[in-house]
Design brief:
With 324 residues, the chain is mostly helical. It folds into two domains: 7-29 and 176-317; 101-172, no CATH class. It is 60% helix and 2% strand. The protein is built from 13 helices and two strands. It has helices at 7-26, 35-38, 48-54, 70-75, 102-106, 109-128, 136-142, 145-172, 195-209, 218-230, 234-250, 260-281, 287-317, and strands at 188-190, 254-256. Strands 1-2 form a two-stranded parallel ribbon. Helix 1 (7-26) packs antiparallel against helix 13 (287-317) and helix 3 (48-54) runs parallel beside helix 11 (234-250). The N and C termini lie close together (4 Å).
């Protein structure tokens, strides 16, 4: 299956991320989310839309009734749908909740101080160049809002290297977001490498990849674009949820050992594109994670096509007809 990520998706993501990042850094104690995205009906630490993706009850703070809030369980790597003990998440969770909020992790006192220092310095230069400004009152009265915004953007640009460095460090400590490595024990491997077993495996895998709702289908890219254009994320939420459910089923497929490396790479890339979509969905709350997701998305197409070439080559070696 060849895939080419539409240019409009990249352009749209750049615009959204840039705007969100500037706002988040200029107003670190404010929110610019719509009421729909902010709502946490049961005050358990998960927004209602996050609960939808996690299959928890947005009106019950403790869905599994084990005494721990749903948000607490997600942040601690526990399954909010299974009572403790024995509720540890066994596979790659959705990168949601406070645990995976990269922007909040990065926006510490050091970064904010750096931005403020840059802002004050540039503001001072502006005042020096405008002799009519001789007091805070005259600065407020005579300076255009567009000028103040430009000073803020320059302050952001000065702090940008620090932000990205810290974001990359935070993400490197959580490889389950974008640096996914599937182990043998994560999948079901069989030593049965008969043509019949391989064909059954390929049929099951292909039915998933070729489904209309798979992340790499054109309809999915359009759903991503429409969500932001219309400020309606319901279809995007459903897309993520449906694919996440399918990933759990794909994990249960019996994989002939000769195909295990390709299967692990494919499952890892599928989880990666899922997390990219989730990061874009969470862009207003966590613009730095979305920015990193954008970088990953730019390379995804080549990585996926390389994997498909490997699959075609292996099928040819095994004299198995395969069309991707």
């Amino acid at each position: 299956m060849k895939v080419k990520i539409p240019l409009i998706v990249i352009i749209l993501a750049v615009i959204l991320i840039a705007g969100g990042l500037i706002f988040a850094l200029k107003y670190p104690n404010k929110k610019f989310l719509s009421e729909q995205n902010l709502k946490d009906s049961d005050n358990d630490g998960l927004k209602d839309w996050e609960e939808e993706l996690c299959h928890t009850n947005p009106y019950n703070p403790d869905t599994d009734g084990d005494g721990y809030l749903d948000g607490e369980e997600v942040d601690s790597g526990r399954n909010p749908l299974v009572k403790a003990p024995g509720d540890k998440l066994s596979f790659y969770p959705l990168p949601l909740g406070e645990k995976y909020n990269i922007t909040k992790k990065v926006l510490n006192e050091e970064v904010i101080d750096s931005m403020l220092d840059s802002y004050i310095s540039q503001k001072g230069e502006y005042i020096t160049d405008h002799s009519e400004i001789y007091s805070p009152e005259t600065y407020s009265a005579s300076t255009k809002e567009s000028t103040i915004q430009e000073i803020s953007k320059r302050a952001l640009a000065d702090s940008y290297p620090i932000l990205i460095e810290k974001a990359e460090q935070a993400i490197s400590e959580m490889p389950e977001i974008f640096d996914i490595n599937i182990a043998d024990e994560d999948i079901n491997i069989s030593e049965n490498n008969s043509p019949e077993a391989i064909k059954l495996y390929l049929l099951q895998a292909y039915s998933f990849l070729n489904s209309d709702t798979f992340f790499l289908q054109e309809q999915s890219f359009q759903a991503l674009i429409a969500a932001f254009q219309n400020d309606d994320f319901s279809k995007l939420n459903e897309l993520i949820k449906v694919n996440d459910e399918k990933i759990e089923k794909i994990k249960q497929i019996i994989v002939p050992s000769s195909w295990k490396e390709i299967h692990k790479q494919g499952l890892g890339l599928t989880l990666l594109i899922r997390n990219i979509y989730v990061s874009f969905r969470d862009i207003q709350n966590d613009p730095l994670k979305a920015y990193t997701a954008l970088e990953k998305m730019e390379n995804f197409s080549d990585n996926w096509n390389d994997l498909m070439e490997k699959a075609l080559k292996l099928a040819e070696e095994q004299d198995i007809e395969l069309s991707l």
